[in-house]
Amino acid sequence: MKFDADEVKKAENNVAQYLKDGLLKKDAGNSQFSGFYMENAKKALLIARHLQKLSTEAETRKNNGFPEGFECFLWVIVLSYYSMFYTANAALAKIKIKVGDKIAHKVTQDALVVYFIKNKKLAKYLLEDYESTKNEVLSLMGVSEEELLKEFQVKAEALIATFDYQRRKRGEFQYEIKMPAKENMANLALERTERFIQEMAKAIGRMN
Question: What CA–CA distances, in Å, run from 54 to 24, 67, 149, 164?
Answer without folding.
Answer: 38, 10, 25, 19
